Amino acid sequence: MTSNLKKSLFVSLAALGFIAAAGTATAQSANAKSYARVTSNQKMTSAPTSRNVNFTGSNALYTKAGTLRGAKKVASTTTVRKLANSKNSQNNIRAYRVATTNRGSVYYKVVTYDGAYRGWIYGRKVQSVFGGGVTSFDTFKNQNLSSLTDTQQKATYKIASPGTANDGKTVTYKQPAWTQYKVGRAITDSSPYANNTFKIDQVGTRTREGDQWVHITDTGNANSPANGWILYSGLKQAEAPIADNAIQINLVDPNNNNKVIKSITVTRDGAKKGTNFGYNDNGNWTISMSDRASLLNQIRDALNGTSYTLDTLTTAQIAQIAQTNFGSSVNISVNAVTNIADNALRINFRKPDGTSLKTIDFVKGGATKGSTVGSAVSGSTNWTLSDSDKQTIQGQINTALNNSGYQLSGGNTLSDSQIDTIARGQYGGQVYLNVVPISNGISTINPYGKQKDANDNTAQALKGVSGLYSTTPNGYSIPSDVGNDKFVDNPTANGAATPTNRTFNVTAAQLADKDGTDLLTNFLSGIKDDNVRLAAYNGITETYLDQAKTQFISTGLNFDEFSGNPGAKFTGETAFEYVNHSALNTLKSVKIPVFSPDGDHSQTPVQNADKWVQYTFQSYKADDGTYGTPVKAYYQYDQPS
To answer: Which residues form the signal peptide (predicted)?
Structure first.
C-alpha cells in the first residue's frame, strides 16, 4: 500500500510538473505573440515639402514602433502636445521613413528641425495619408503681393543692418528660416550688399510665429547671390531722389523705425538744398502754425485707409521736421490704431486745425479685415456705398456730430467725395472726414496790390510765396534790332544762339546763388556796346521789380481766420478792421536784385545786401462780402527799400 501510495504521489507530482511546464510554454508563446514585428521599413520618397508634419498630441514618440519589443519612449504625449503648439519654427517636424507591422499598423520616423527629438510615432493603418500621432502641416503660408500696400509694392529696399547675424533680419535665406528641413541661408554676410537696392516679389508668414517674410530680388542683378527671403522688419525703404526744394517725411511704425507706412513730400517755392525747413526760436527748433496744420492734414490724408493715425505733432517731432534740410528726409513715428474690430471701419472727424474731434466705428456683420467697405462705380473712377450702408453711416454721423458745434465740410449730408473716401476704406482700418464749425463761415482774405496813388482798378492779385526771393523765371531779351556788331563772337549767354534771342532767364532765388551771378556775368559780358549793356542792366532790374509787385513772403501768415455766421453779410470796414489789426496789415514783397553797370555782381546777397530790395505792401481797405466766401483786401506800395 505504501508502495502504491508513493507511486501514485509520484505520478501526480509528475503530472503536475508537466502541466506547469506546459503552462509556462503556453505563457511564453502567448507573451511572444504580444509584440508586433516590422514587415516593411523604407525611406519616404515623396517631395520633402509634402512630408512636413505636426504632432497631434494623441501618441507618444518612441525609439522604434511602440508595439515592438524594446521600444522606449522618446517624448510623452504631454511633450509632443507642447511641441505641436510651439510658436518656434525650429520645432517644425519632417517625416522621412515609414514602417508597417505585421498587424497592419503604420509608423513614421520623424525629426524636429532642430534635431532635439527623433523617433517613431504611430500613424494608423494607411501610408498614403498622415494620421494617428501626426498630421500634415504647412510651415509657411504664401500670400498674394496685394497683401502689401501699393507703396510697399512699388518701393525699393535696402537691408537695414547689414552683417553676419543669423537672426532673420540681417542676411537672406533660400527659404524663410526653419520652414524647410536643412534649407539654410542664401548668403552668410550681407555687408557686401549694403548699398544694393531690392524689390519685393513674394510675401508670406511663418505659421508658428506669424511673422512676415518677403522674398527680395536685387534691382541691379536678377541673379544676385543675395536674392532670397528675409523678415520684412529687416528692410528699410531706399529713398527716391528728393527735390532740392522739398523734404520727405516718412511715416513709420512706432515699434519699427524701418517700417515705412506712408511717405509725404513737402515742397516750398524758392527753398535751397541744405537749408532747414523750420527755424530756431530762442534755442528751440520750430515751424509756423500754418505749416503745422498743413503737415498734419497731409499726414492724415496719407494715413487714410491704414491702421495708423497721428492726432498731433509732438514738440520733438516738430523739432525733427524743423531741422530737416531741404533735399533730405526725416522719419516720424505714427500711432497704431487700437481696438478696431476686424469687421469695423473707424471714421475720424478732423477739424480745420488738423486735430481730431471724435470718431465712430461702422460695423458690418460678416465683413473681413482688409476687405473694402464699398465698391468701384462701373465706368467711373469713383467708389460708392450700398444704399443701406450709406443710410447707416449717415445716421451714425448725424448722431455723433449732434450738438458738437461741427458739421461735415460742405453740409450735413455726405458728399460724393466723402462717400468715395469711406468706400475705399478697409475693414480693420480707418478714414478721415473733414468737419467745420457750424457757427463760423470762413472768408479767405485775398490780397490785391497797387502803386500808391494809382486807381484801385489797377490792383493786381498778390501771390504768397514761402521763400525770400521771387520764384517765377525772369525773361529779358535784347531788342531784335540790335546788330551783330553790338556783341562779341560766340556769346555764352544763357540760351543765346543768335543776337535776336539773347535772353536772360533766371529766378531771383537762383541769382542769389553764385551760379546765377555767373549767368548774369556771361550774359552781360557778351555785349560790346556800352549803351546796350546799360539798357540790359536797366531792363533786367525792371523785370525783377515788376515781379516783386505781385509776390509777397507768406511764411507764418494765415489768411483763413476771418469768420462769422455762415451767409451773414459784412462790410468792407469790418473786413479791413480785421486785416488792420492782424499780422496781415503789412506784407513784405519778395527780395529783388537792383543792378548798376559798374557794380560787383559776383557776391551773394549777404555779402552784397545793399543790392537787394523789397516793397512794403500796406493795407488800406477791403470789399464788402458774405461770411463763407473769399473777400479782397487792398494794399498799396511805394518805392522799394
So the answer is: 1-27
